[in-house]
Amino acid sequence: MTLVIDDNKCARCGICEPECPNEAIVQTEDAYVIDPALCTNCAEHYGEPLCEAVCPNDGIHKVKESLYKKCLNLFG
């Protein structure tokens, strides 16, 4: 599974970025995004995604890899 940040729920508070042990979350000009190449869902040490746990707006969700790849192809 891949994690994505829902732009409609993200308050751009930035609390998720420092929680990521893999530095997979970065701030772009107008949003926070998760790099799927770096994200491990925190499975190696924590058993659950830390960013998802700390998000105050439930704006981080797991999606199937194939769905994520389809979205990338459509929207870049």
TrEMBL record:
This protein's UniProt keywords? Iron, Iron-sulfur, Metal-binding
| Keyword Phosphoprotein part of the UniProt annotation | no
Record-linked SUPFAM superfamilies? 4Fe-4S ferredoxins
Question: What are this entry's molecular-function GO terms?
Answer: iron-sulfur cluster binding; metal ion binding
4Fe-4S ferredoxin-type domain residues are 1-30
| Keyword Iron appears in the UniProt entry | yes
Say which domain of life the source belongs to. Answer: Bacteria
**Which Gene3D superfamilies does this chain map to?**
3.30.70.20
Protein's name in the database: 4Fe-4S binding protein
Q: Which organism is it from?
A: Methylobacter tundripaludum
Lineage, please? Bacteria, Pseudomonadati, Pseudomonadota, Gammaproteobacteria, Methylococcales
